[in-house]
Amino acid sequence: MRLIIFDQFQEILTAASAGRAKERRVFFAQLEQALGADSLLRVLFVLREEFVAALEPYLPVLEIRPARFRMEHLNAAQALEAIQRPMESTGCRFTSAAASKLVDTLRTVRIFTPGDENETELGEFVEAVQLQVVCHSLWNALPPGATEITENDLDTYGDRDQALRKLYDTSIAEAAHESGLREAALRRWCAHQLITPLETRRLVLREGDQTAGIPTHAIERLADHYLVRAELRAGAIWYELAHDGLIEPILRSNREWLSSRNWWQKLPELLTRFALLGWRAR
């Protein structure tokens, strides 16, 4: 058997404009020819769930009924296994208390109570990327010869916010480079469009080539880095941060990044803040 894997296959639907529909159909027709000419050839499309429906019109061209496999989010038990099982062959182990504490930290989300109080509770799922980022950071910070990771080690070496700030910094820098957008503009967009004044997640409606003032393809780059996720609601695509746990790391990273700039580099952000303050005062 021969296998062709198309990763991030949603790009064929998002990177090209509506005027490229004919070219997309040509691609699928060529793929059908390849499958017909080679009985051992198999194709795997890897794409985000919200774009599965948009792929449907092209499947009749292939004249196949594809098998589908949905990658589920990690629940608490699966996240616990993902933390502990890889350690079994390393000579170092997580204590049950430490692993459970890390899982609870990663699935904590913010909620609004009837009195508009901003509180937290344990969510149902853990974001796999955040788990990987935090565990990788913790592992690299452990002292040589460590054989056990305890709750104290989590407090000392497993700073979730610090690990997620590194994820945000890396994602923003790479997305800005890949999209050709200024890093300052992308940071400002994340802070003001994806986070409310009460420091909760905000949904942003996808609006074609431009979404809330910046190119949509730049937001797609953030989604590729698992910083932002897209959701299909009422026939439209909405963007939001991948998890509540990213809010404080993003705001803190932006503050530190801005403080390191020269005054003329800070000017667009300062003008945006003054405009927002004026709007809220009305």
The arrangement of helices and strands along the chain is: EHHEHHEHEHEEEHEHHHEEEHEEHH
Whole-number average pLDDT?
A: 83
Question: For the largest beta sheet, what order do the strands appear in spatially?
Answer: 9-13-12
Overall helicity: 40-55%
**Share in β-strands:** 15-25%
Biggest sheet, open or closed, and with what strands and sense?
Answer: 3 strands, antiparallel
Give the oligomeric state: single chain
Poorly predicted residue ranges: 276-282
Distance between the termini: 66 Å
- DSSP strand tally: 13
Q: Any idea what the shape is? A: globular
Backbone structural class: alpha+beta
Radius of gyration: 22 Å
How many helices? The count is: 13
Any overview of this molecule?
It is a single chain. The protein has 282 residues and is of the alpha+beta class. The chain has helices spanning 11-14, 21-37, 52-55, 59-62, 76-84, 96-106, 128-141, 151-157, 160-179, 183-193, 216-224, 247-259, 263-281, and strands spanning 2-6, 41-45, 74-75, 93-94, 108-112, 118-122, 125-126, 148-149, 204-205, 210-211, 214-215, 228-233, 236-241. Strands 9-13-12 form a three-stranded antiparallel sheet, with helices on one face. A two-stranded parallel ribbon has the order 1-2. Helix 6 crosses helix 8 (151-157), helix 7 (128-141) packs across helix 9 (160-179) and helix 9 packs across helix 11. The longest helix has 20 residues, at 160-179. The protein is globular, with a radius of gyration of 22 Å.
